[in-house]
Every structure is written in C-alpha cells, then in structure tokens.
Amino acid sequence: MQAYSAYFHKxxxxxxxxxxxxxxxxxxxxxxxxxxxxxxHQLWVALGVYVAGSVLLQxxxxxVGASFGIQIVCSFAxxxxxxxxxxxxxxxxxxxxGYGELGPVSAKTIDDAEKAALTALTNYSVRxxxxxxxxxxxxxxxxx
Length: 144
Known about the structure:
Elements: E1 2-8, E2 19-23, H1 28-32, H2 34-40, H3 44-64, H4 68-84, H5 86-96, E3 100-107, H6 110-132
Antiparallel strand pairs: 1-2, 1-3
C-alpha cells in the first residue's frame, strides 16, 4: 500500500487541478534530476534551495580542500536529503496556493487513492453543509 496526502481547492473542479495527491515516499526523480523535478512541479523555492545548497556545498568543500571522491559522496548525500524532502516541498507549495489538506489516503494504486480521496471529500462536504445548516427549535416532523 502506498500513502498519499490528498489536497483539494475549493474554487476549482475536482479534476487534475482541483484534487492533488502527493505521494509520501522518496522521490527518485528528485534524486536523479533535482532541478528538472523542481521545474516540472513549478517549485521555485525548492529549485532555489537546491541551487543555493549545491553552490554552498561545493564552495565549502573547495575551501577545505576535499578530494574529488569526498565531493562526489557529499553531492550524492545532499541530493538524497533533497529528494527525501521532496514531498514536503510539494506540501508547502499546495498550501501556499490555497489548497486545503484533506488528509492521508492509503491505496494500492493512485486511481484507488483518488477514489478514496473523492469519497472522503464528499463526506467532508456533507459534514460541512450539515454543520452550516441552521438548527430550528422545532424538530422536523413535529407539530406545535
């Protein structure tokens, strides 16, 4: 089973733009091609973190006179750390863009996760509507 975080936007239809599922796992794409991953998801802050972190890491390693092997190991370690935080970068961007977190969803496939998220969103909407409905002093069906 794969874990996802479900996000929805109140003002958008529940298609690819209104309902977003973020996989809660290590991102191999962010590990192997971090800049392209950040551009693909329009994560400008994450791209800036990667570029600034890479530059500062390289400058620091050059300053201490680290060997080429140490530089490679440190670069891979930084890329691993960056990819481990990839879902968090997406969470922050979605929250900033006005998406509300629906909660965690666990499913075998992303299609099953989307169905579960839509069901949860429907239940959430029904509960919200029920809480906003004004309560009368008179019970439904009673006569006075």
